[in-house]
Amino acid sequence: MTGGVNPESGDRNASYIYRIKFSDSDNVAPAAGFPKLHIKQGGAEISGSPFTMNYVSGAYNTGAIYSYTKNLMPGTNYTYYFEAQDAVAASAGGSPTTEISAPSVSNQLPGLAWTGETNYLNDGVCPKVASSSTPSIFRAKYSDPDNDAPAAGYPKLYVKKGGAQAPGSPFLLTCAGTDYIGGVICNLSEVLGSGEYSYRFEAFDIYNGLASGAPANEAGGLVSIGTDLPAAQEVKVYHGVFKPGQDEKTNISFNTPAPAAVTVTVYNNIGRKVKELYRGGSSTGLNLIQWDGRDDAGARVSSGVYTIKIEGGGINQSKRVVVVR
After folding, report:
1. What is the DSSP letter of 95?
2. 10 Å Cβ neighbour count for 76?
3. CATH dotted code for 5-106
4. Which of 87, 78, 28, 18 is CA-nearest to residue 53?
5. By CB atoms within 10 Å of each CB, which of 66, 255, 262, 283 scores lowest?
6. What is the pLDDT of residue 1?
C-alpha cells in the first residue's frame, strides 16, 4: 500500500481501512477530534466527512497509529486526505495532508435469467401463441450479488412488431420480493394485437449497473392472433423459419365454421411423412397447432424445407416451413 487506504480498489461490499501515523516530538496528544479523515467523491465531501479517527497503538513521540474503516458506494472519483492538530492547535504537516486519488469502488453487476418454471424454462413468455382475448404473460428473474434493487422504472420489457416498438413498449414489470441475491421474479401480463413479435428484457441496478443474461437478448417466436382471424378454411403459418435447437416453434392457425375431423401432418422435401401433429376434431372458429421441429420418434429433424398439410373441415392446404439448425 503506497497511501493511507487499503484496499485501493474493490467492490462496494469491501471495508476500506484508512490508517495514519501521528507523531509529536514533544509527546503531545492530538487535539480532541483529531486526526480527521476527509473523504471526497467528485470533489465534494461525502456524507459525514470529515471523520474522527480511532487510536490503535503507539506513543505520540515515536508515532501513534490511528485508523478508520468505511464502506463506500461505487465510484472511481474518490479522494482522501488527513488533518491533525496537537493539543496546542499546531497543525500537522506531511504528505498525508495532501489529497490522494483512491480508492476505486466497483459495482457487481446484476443479472437476468429465465425463471425455470413450467413454460418458462428457456424463454420468458407464455403462451407463445395467443388469441385477442388471451394475455401473454412475460416473466424473468432479476438478481444482484450486492443485493441491490432494480433502478426506478426497471426491469423493462421491450416488445417489437416488424422491427418497431409495439404500442406501449417498453413496459414496466412488477417484481415480487426483496431477496435480490437469490433473485426475484418479475412479471407482466399484456394483450397484444395481431402479428408476430420479438421481445427482450432490460434492467439496471440502483448504481446504474446494466444486467446481462439470456433475457437481455432479443427473442422471437411470439405470435398473437388478434381479431383478424383467418377466413374460413384459410391456413396461416407464423414463424415459418425457425430454429428448434433454440426451442423455437412454428405455429399454424386455421378457422373452421363448424366442428370437423381434421389431420395436420408434416412431410419432408421428398414427400415422406415426418410427424402427424394432430388427428381429431377441430373447434368452431380459431384452431392453433404448433410444431417443435421433431419427428414421430421425438428426434429433432435436420435443416431443410418441410411441408405442413391440413386436411378436413373443407380444408385441403399445404404450407411450407424452413427448419434451421
Report:
1. G
2. 12
3. 2.60.40.650
4. 18
5. 283
6. 46
Residue 54: all three cell numbers together: 480511532
Domain topology for 108-228: Immunoglobulin-like (2.60.40)
The pTM for the full model equals 0.64
Q: Are 186 and 173 in contact (CB under 8 A)?
A: yes
Q: Please state the domain extents for the chain.
A: 5-106, 108-228, 229-325
Q: Is the four-CA dihedral 36, 40, 43, 48 of positive or negative sign?
A: negative
Q: What is the pLDDT, as a whole number, of residue 233?
A: 64
SS3 content of the chain, % helix, strand, coil (to 5): 5, 50, 45
- Secondary structure string (H, E, C) spanning 202-270: ECEECCCCECECHHHCCEEEEEEECCCCCCECCEEEECCEECHHHCCCEEEEEEECCCCEEEEEEECCC
- Asked if the domains at 108-228 and 229-325 fall in one CATH topology, the answer is yes
Give the CA radius of gyration of the chain: 32
Residue that is written with C-alpha cell 501515523 in the block: 21
Question: Within 13 A of 78's CA, how many CA atoms are on the CB side?
Answer: 27
As averages over each run of 10 residues, the pLDDT of the chain (325 residues) reads: 86 94 92 96 96 96 96 93 91 94 94 94 84 83 95 96 89 96 95 84 95 92 59 75 84 83 93 93 82 93 94 89 91
A 10 A CB-CB count for 108 gives 17
Predicted pLDDT at 232: 59
Predicted pLDDT at 176: 94
Exposed/middle/buried for residue 115 (C-beta within 10 Å: 0-12, 13-18, 19+): middle
Three-class secondary structure of residue 96 per DSSP: helix
Cβ atoms of 317 and 310 closer than 8 Å? yes
